[in-house]
Amino acid sequence: GEDWEGTAIEYDDDLVNLPLYVVKAMRGGNYRTVLQWLGKGNIKDKVNAKCESVGNVGLLYLASDARDYDFMSFLLLNGAHVNITNSDGLSVLPLIYDSRDFMTVIRLLLSWGAEIFHEGRGATSQEMKELRFKTIMEGNAAVANLISSELGGRRCKMVSAPDNRDDLVGKTCVVGRHIKKSSQYEVTVEFTNESLLLGADNLERYDRTPHDPGCFVECKNNRLKRRDFKSNAECRAIVVSLREDVEESSEADPDAEAKAEQAAADLLS
Q1: Do the Cβ atoms of 70 and 35 come closer than 8 Å?
Q2: CB 60, CB 84: distance < 8 Å
Q3: Could you read off the pLDDT of 58-110 as tens digits, one per residue?
Q4: For residue 228, how far is the Cα from the chain centroid?
Q5: From residue 210, how far is each of 216, 227, 267 by CA, in Å?
Q6: Which positions ≥6 away from 210 have C-beta within 8 Å?
Q7: Closest Cα partner for 40 from 269, 223, 258?
Q8: pTM metric for this prediction
Q9: Contact 16, 45 (CB under 8 A)
Q10: For labelling, which of 149, 225, 260, 263 has a CA lying 20 to 30 Å from the CA of 19?
Q11: What is the spatial distance between Cα 218 and Cα 255, in angstroms, rounded to a whole number?
C-alpha cells in the first residue's frame, strides 16, 4: 500500500538464528521437529528466526512455500512478522506471488497486512505498476488484480452497507477481486460466507492480528490444531482465555523459560 512506499523495515540485531536442520525439516514436511524446536524457549523470538546459510529465509516463507495455511496462521498468531525480509530485502509476498497455485497463500498473507518489499523497503507506485504488468504477462491476472488494488485480498470491516443491510455494518469480510467497470469489490463475509459486491467507501481495512485473528491454531503434543468460530467476539474471547492460561503456567514456574532454553541449547550443541 501507499503507506509503506519507500519505507524500510528495521529489525533488532539479536534475532534468533534458525538452525539448518529446522529448515530441512520444514521443507521435508517434518513439522513435528519444527514444532519441537519452536516449543523450546520463547516462541515469540523463534517465529522470526532467520537461517543465514540459506539467504536469511524464515519460517513464514517456508510455510508459505509449502502452502501450509495452518502453519502460516500459527506463526502469525505467535508474532511472526508478515513482512519479514530475506537477505535480498524481499518480503514473503513477492517471493510467492508469481504463481496462481499460491492464491490462497497470497490471500492469507494480505489479510494479515502483507506488503511487497524490495531491497528492504516498500515498493514504489512505479514498481507496483511494473509488477502488475509483469504478473499479467505471465498469465496471473487474478494475482495482479489482488496485489494492485487498494483492498484486494485484505480483511476489512464493513462501515456501511447498501440496500438497507444495516445488519452487515461492523462485520468483517475478506475482499476479493476488484471490478474496474463498477469500482466495486467482491467480498466474502466472515463466518457466514455470504458473497457481496461493495465499494471501497463501504469498507475499512481491518488486518488480522494475534488478538483478533478470526480463527485460532494451537500446538498440542507437537501437532497443530485449528479452531474455527461463529463470530469474531467468540474468537477474541477464546484467544484471550488461552493466552491467560499460558501466562499463568509461566508464572507457576518462573524458571520454565530458562530451563527450556537450556534444554534447547543442549539439544543443538
Answers
A1: no
A2: yes
A3: 999 999 999 999 999 999 999 999 999 999 999 999 998 877 789 999 999 99
A4: 17
A5: 9, 14, 30
A6: 76, 77, 78, 79, 239
A7: 258
A8: 0.85
A9: yes
A10: 225
A11: 23
- The cell for 17 is 538464528
DSSP one-letter code for 12: -
Grid coordinates representing 137? 504477462
Distance CA 170, CA 135 (A): 34
- Distance of alpha carbon 122 from alpha carbon 127, whole angstroms: 10
Per-residue pLDDT reduced to its tens digit, 208-228: 999 999 999 999 999 999 999
CA distance 153 to 248: 37
Give the closest residue to 140 by CA, choosing from 186, 103, 180, 95. 103
Tell me the residue length of the chain: 269
Question: Which single residue is written with the C-alpha cell 495452518?
Answer: 70
Look up residue 159 and give its three cell numbers: 462501515
**8 Å CB contact between 211 and 235:** no
Instruction: Dump the DSSP string for 65-76.
Output: HTT-HHHHHHHH
Amino acid at 269: S
Alpha helices in the chain (DSSP H): 20-27, 31-38, 43-46, 59-65, 69-77, 92-96, 103-111, 125-137, 141-148, 232-252, 256-268
- The alpha carbon of 215 is separated from its chain's Cα centroid by a whole number of angstroms, namely 12
Task: At 65, list the grid cell.
Answer: 512455500
- Name residue 57's beta-bridge partners: 51
Cα gap 160→157, rounded to integer Å: 9
